[in-house]
Design brief:
By secondary structure, the chain is mainly alpha-helical. The protein has 15 helices and no strands. The structure holds zinc ion (2 copies). One zinc ion binds at residues 35, 37-38, 63, 65-66.
């Protein structure tokens, strides 16, 4: 990409700078989010219309500039967008292709209700993450994993005289979790990290660089502490091995279509996948094998269908006396993305040859 664009700083359009310190799980949102007022301002001020990197993070709920919730649904067709889609274009819906900007005066009355404390935290989050991303190109240090443990230990010393248990209690985080973070054995998610920084009244960047004057700043915590709910904490409950085993065996015997993945099975049983695996590795392998086999069959069927569709579309274009270029054919395909697979591509090339 850098060669093609003659730009050598494209990594700052991504989270690569922070890849060592932010675990990738649940980091990036699965759907596109945007601030319609930012789009509109970019357009009316003749600026380049672009997607803010912060909007792609799952933790970011509001625009730091307009203090309004980010949108996830197009206000024309009400559909969600993928982060990258066929015909993606900054500022436009990839489903109906219409403009996503809105004048700031046109704020819709439906705003998802956050409590005042939640909103305060969400705005603070958007500002501190935005600041971190904006300063990424000018860092004087490399963000390594080790910085995280070092920073945490420094704050444990400051706030709780080095007592990890006391620190954990004050921030309402399980003691073992904080201990693993401090020893560098685990990394906190960006969500957990932001909660810690918020309580410590320190910006994310200052926390990671340890640039904040640790000695002189007041050691008080911000109260109330926002709750950190991780998916793991939610699933902590007694593990009923017999019941889980029965359920998995029943799923294996059923001819459910499509066969569920182990992740899906764990979700249904409301158990942690790793716990189930510890008890019943063979059953877990059987579930996964069946799921993969089903997925492979569906994929092959899908590819076959795309090839067949290409033959029909090209025939139709031929009847109209139009050459079946890739662009014309893809516009009519149900799943144009399948053109990235060699077999589908070959099907198109084969029919194109007949037209030459
Ligand atoms: Zn905005
Ligand atoms: Zn739309």
């Amino acid at each position: 990409m850098q060669k093609l664009t003659l730009n050598n700083n494209l990594q700052f359009l991504t989270l690569l700078t922070w890849s060592e310190v932010f675990p990738s799980m649940n980091l990036v949102s699965s759907t596109r989010a945007w601030c319609p007022y930012c789009y509109q301002e970019q357009l009316t001020r003749n600026h380049i219309v672009y997607e803010s990197l912060a909007w792609s993070l799952d933790i970011i709920k509001v625009c730091s500039y307009h203090k309004q919730r980010l949108h996830h649904n197009c206000h024309h067709c009400h559909q969600t967008n993928y982060a990258l889609a066929w015909r993606s274009r900054p500022g436009y819906c990839s489903k109906c292709l219409k403009w996503l900007g809105l004048p700031f005066e046109a704020q819709p009355s439906e705003s998802k209700s956050s409590t005042e404390d939640e909103l305060k935290f969400e705005i603070w989050t958007a500002i501190t993450v935005g600041d971190l991303l904006a300063k990424s190109p000018y860092l004087t240090f490399e963000p390594f994993k080790e910085n995280m443990a070092k920073s945490l230990c420094a704050y444990v010393n400051k706030v709780a005289d080095g007592n990890i248990a006391a620190f954990a209690r004050q921030l309402q985080i399980p003691r073992n979790t904080v201990w693993l973070w401090c020893k560098g054995r685990n990394l906190p998610s960006i969500k957990a990290l932001l909660h810690i920084c918020y309580c410590l009244k320190v910006s994310l960047l200052n926390f990671l660089t340890l640039e904040e004057d640790l000695v002189n700043s007041p050691p008080t915590l911000r109260i109330p502490v926002p709750q950190i709910k991780s998916s793991r904490q939610k699933s902590i409950k007694r593990f009923d091995a017999d019941k889980v085993k029965q359920n998995i065996e029943a799923i294996l015997e059923s001819d459910e279509y499509p066969a569920p993945s182990m992740e899906e099975v764990a979700r249904r049983l409301k158990c942690d996948r790793r716990t189930i695996f510890r008890y019943f590795p063979d059953l877990c392998h059987a579930i996964s094998a069946r799921y993969l086999k089903g997925r492979k069959a569906r994929f092959e069927h899908n590819i076959e269908q795309s090839c067949e569709e290409i033959r029909q579309i090209t025939q139709k274009l031929w009847n109209q006396g139009i050459y079946p270029s890739e662009k014309r054919v893809s516009e009519q395909m149900t799943m144009p993305g399948n053109l990235r697979y060699p077999k589908v591509r070959l099907a198109l090339q084969e029919v194109q040859c007949q037209f030459k």
